[in-house]
């Protein structure tokens, strides 16, 4: 009886293991990628791809509202992933292995898989190398491969690199998003890489990645870390942000001619993409980055009203994206493609086959190497027909004739180009040294080595662009193709000058901007380990620089201290002077108010023809009060001097009192109330000292500021009615002479408040039909 329980448990254990194996077998048999796609086991990749496209279109969740459409679409995608890869397809055909049941297809080892039913399998904990996702395994990077292949390739396309490890549990959560992003970006040309920090410690340290998971971008050999929430859209935007800003130019009806005519200056063909989406597609941006050294790229949004003319000009079909490629002829495209689904292979082939003008200019060594490659095999000979010419207008007809000849001789074995002698003097001197010739000359050459060795021959008779010259050149080219020994001279060509080297400062500025942006980005996201040496160097330099400046400033101020002390003491000796107030105040550092006198010369420009919206603020004064009131006026209006619509003037009422009287007569509501009491009296004139006028010359109105009452205004009405009036007038006259300048300038005490109301537009406006004439009047004694 004691053995029976053990035997029962053993059989129960075997039965449970058998049930688990049967369950896995049934689960594996349920998913058959061939049945899902409806293809046979002998179907070709083209048939599998065709079936996948049809089913994906049919079961896409955005188009198919069936509740099970999403699950079916996942099965279709998963089936295509297995069958489109020969290695995974072979594993499934031999062992029935997919990503999920790969470890179950292995030879059974005891009852090890019984524990897998409790979800403690290796794939869950991600223990061993064999459980790595196939997508990651395909893109694993090694240090040598990264340095020798990935970094040089990053100058043609950006890379998205994931840093992971075997013990990274967080990496499991981002795996679905990473796989979807890889499928999308890899299809448009983005390079993908995966670095296992446990196996490639050296590469991880080189990249500056010290934690997992991390995602970084690589472009032009520069590494940029991704610091945002991991989502498909964010990763796509991150890749777009790696690309330079002005890769693709937005083209409309207003600038398309300028864009197409840019081939002369930049020596590149121009490509225009017409599409209905408002943003430039990522695939097009990546293509423009890969071919930026050879082709200019523009984008036309067909949905804009500003592109109607260009669509009609080139008869563009708005139902499918269209690409036009222009060379020297800007009125007719050299090549056209139109397609509904943009494919990277089609666009690359289209641009690569047209990356040179029909007759390009040799502007640097890179263009020379691409246009005239070194001979490798006899069947791959390429001859360069080179025109040495000049930039002056005298050479225009010669150059056009050479272009016409090249247009009619488009054999693959011939490449036509031209150089400006002044720009490429060493090259021209080498090719023309055997014969005393001057441009224009045509030279046929064949490159024999990358070091610069060439075989060449100068076309006899020179080149003037005549029909005879064209016939002679045609005969010699025909002879060359029959007898390669026709090239009788050899030479070692120097490296070509880079004619775009003048743009070095702009390129340096762009590189500096990118470097500073990257440094700011790293500082913002606390990548301190890599940034600390640079930050320390920058702060040390800034400390030395500003420390020197501050010490120099203090030393200069100490040397200038004695003269300042004298300037402060001088006002004390002139304390009794009328100008004591002005000299005792600190002189402003260019903080002044410009006040001009309103005379018959400046009257028209400062008032009558004053620009609309501008106001001239005029202070009315006398010769005696001029100095005091001008100082007070400048102090009151100083805070408003920053306005560009306000101008400041002063009017000498001793000379132009008649103008003031006429102005106030034209606006009766602006006259003081005292005028009603002095009607018929001509012995007393109104005192306008301290009045301020805000004159709007365009709209013909003014605002009036009356001075604060100081107890000095004349009281002519009472003196004329009472006995002894003459004595009282003399008394008031003597009191005015005794009045100090301190009392006079108090007339403008409330001017700043009045100016605030002027700026607010709340002051009453007095309109006049026309401005009175200003004539000089003899001052009254």
Automatic annotation (TrEMBL):
Signal peptide: 1-28
Pfam families reported in the protein's UniProt record: DnaJ, Thioredoxin
J domain location: 32-96
Membrane topology field: Single-pass type IV membrane protein
Keyword terms, alphabetized: Autophagy, Glycoprotein, Signal
Start-end of Polar residues biased regions: 573-586
Predominant location: endoplasmic reticulum
Compositional bias (Basic and acidic residues): 558-572
InterPro entries in UniProt: DnaJ_C16_autophagy_reg, DnaJ_domain, DnaJ_domain_CS, DNAJC16_TRX, J_dom_sf, Thioredoxin-like_sf, Thioredoxin_domain
Annotated localization: Endoplasmic reticulum membrane
Any one annotated GO CC term: endoplasmic reticulum membrane
Residue numbers spanned by region Disordered: 557-591, 712-738
Keyword Calcium: no
Entry's Gene Ontology BP terms: autophagy
PROSITE patterns xrefs: DNAJ_1, DNAJ_2
Role of this protein: Plays an important role in regulating the size of autophagosomes during the formation process.
Protein name per UniProt: DnaJ homolog subfamily C member 16
């Amino acid at each position: 009886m004691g053995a029976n329980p053990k035997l029962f448990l053993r059989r129960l254990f075997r039965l449970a293991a058998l049930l688990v194996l049967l369950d896995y077998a049934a689960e594996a048999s349920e998913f058959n990628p061939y049945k899902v796609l409806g293809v046979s086991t002998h179907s070709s990749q083209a048939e599998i791809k065709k079936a996948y496209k049809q089913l994906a279109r049919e079961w896409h969740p955005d188009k198919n509202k069936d509740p099970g459409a999403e699950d079916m679409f996942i099965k279709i995608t998963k089936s295509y992933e297995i069958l489109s890869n020969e290695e995974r397809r072979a594993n499934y055909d031999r062992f029935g292995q997919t990503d999920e049941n790969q470890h179950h297809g292995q030879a059974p080892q005891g009852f090890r898989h019984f524990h897998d039913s409790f979800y403690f399998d290796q794939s869950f904990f991600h223990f061993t190398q064999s459980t790595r996702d196939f997508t990651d395994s395909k893109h694993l990077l090694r240090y040598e491969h990264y340095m020798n292949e990935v970094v040089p390739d990053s100058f043609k396309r950006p890379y998205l690199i994931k840093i992971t490890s075997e013990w990274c549990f967080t990496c499991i959560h981002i795996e679905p998003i990473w796989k979807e992003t890889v499928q999308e970006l890899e299809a448009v040309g983005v390079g993908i890489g995966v670095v296992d920090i446990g196996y490639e410690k050296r590469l991880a340290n080189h990249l500056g990645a010290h934690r997992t998971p991390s995602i970084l971008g690589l472009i032009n050999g520069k590494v940029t870390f991704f610091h945002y929430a991991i989502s498909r859209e964010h990763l796509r935007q991150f890749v777009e942000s790696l690309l330079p800003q002005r890769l693709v130019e937005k083209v409309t009806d207003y600038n398309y001619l300028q864009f197409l005519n840019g081939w002369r200056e930049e020596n590149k063909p121009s490509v225009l993409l017409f599409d209905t989406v408002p943003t430039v597609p990522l695939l097009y941006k990546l293509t423009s980055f890969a071919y930026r050294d050879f082709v200019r790229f523009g984008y036309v949004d067909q949905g804009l009203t500003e592109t109607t003319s260009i669509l009609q000009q080139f008869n563009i079909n708005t139902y499918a994206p269209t690409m036009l490629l222009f060379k020297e002829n800007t009125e007719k495209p050299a090549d056209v493609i139109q397609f509904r689904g943009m494919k990277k292979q089609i666009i690359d082939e289209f641009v690569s086959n047209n990356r040179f003008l029909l007759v390009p200019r040799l502007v640097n060594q890179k263009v020379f190497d691409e246009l005239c490659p070194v001979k490798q095999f006899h069947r791959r000979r390429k001859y360069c027909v080179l025109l040495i010419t000049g930039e002056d207008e005298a050479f225009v007809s010669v150059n056009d004739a050479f272009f016409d000849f090249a247009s009619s001789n488009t054999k693959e074995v011939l490449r036509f180009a031209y150089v400006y002698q002044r720009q490429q003097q060493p090259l021209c001197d080498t090719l023309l040294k055997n014969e005393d010739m001057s441009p224009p000359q045509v030279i046929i050459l064949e490159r024999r080595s990358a070091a610069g060795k060439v075989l060449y021959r100068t076309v006899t008779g020179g080149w003037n662009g005549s029909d005879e010259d064209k016939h002679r050149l045609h005969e010699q080219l025909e002879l060359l193709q029959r007898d390669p020994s026709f090239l009788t001279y050899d030479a070692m060509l120097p490296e070509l000058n880079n004619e775009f080297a003048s743009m070095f400062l702009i390129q340096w500025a762009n590189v500096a901007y990118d470097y500073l942006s990257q440094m700011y980005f790293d500082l913002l996201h606390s990548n301190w380990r890599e940034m600390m040496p640079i930050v320390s160097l920058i702060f040390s330099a800034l400390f030395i620089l500003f420390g020197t400046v501050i010490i120099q400033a203090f030393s200069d101020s100490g040397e200038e201290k004695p003269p300042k002390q004298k300037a402060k003491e001088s006002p004390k000796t002139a304390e009794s002077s009328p100008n004591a107030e002005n000299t005792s105040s600190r002189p402003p550092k260019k903080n002044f108010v410009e006040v001009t006198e309103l005379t018959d010369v400046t009257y028209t420009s400062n008032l009558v023809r004053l620009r609309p919206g501008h106001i001239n603020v005029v202070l009315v004064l006398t010769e005696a009060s001029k100095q005091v009131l001008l100082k007070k006026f400048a102090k009151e209006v100083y805070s408003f001097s920053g306005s560009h619509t306000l101008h400041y003037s002063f009017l000498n009422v001793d000379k132009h009192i008649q103008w003031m009287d006429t102005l106030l007569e034209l606006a009766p509501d602006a006259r003081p109330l005292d005028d009603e009491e002095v009607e018929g009296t001509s012995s007393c004139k109104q005192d306008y000292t301290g009045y301020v006028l805000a004159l709007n010359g365009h709209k013909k109105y003014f605002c009036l500021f009356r001075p604060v009452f100081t107890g000095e205004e004349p009281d002519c009405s009472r003196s004329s009615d009472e006995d002894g009036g003459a004595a009282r007038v003399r008394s008031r006259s003597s009191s005015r002479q005794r009045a100090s300048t301190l009392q006079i300038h108090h007339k403008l005490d409330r001017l700043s408040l009045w100016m605030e109301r002027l700026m607010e537009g709340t002051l009453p406006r007095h309109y006049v039909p026309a401005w009175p004439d200003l004539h000089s009047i003899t001052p009254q004694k």
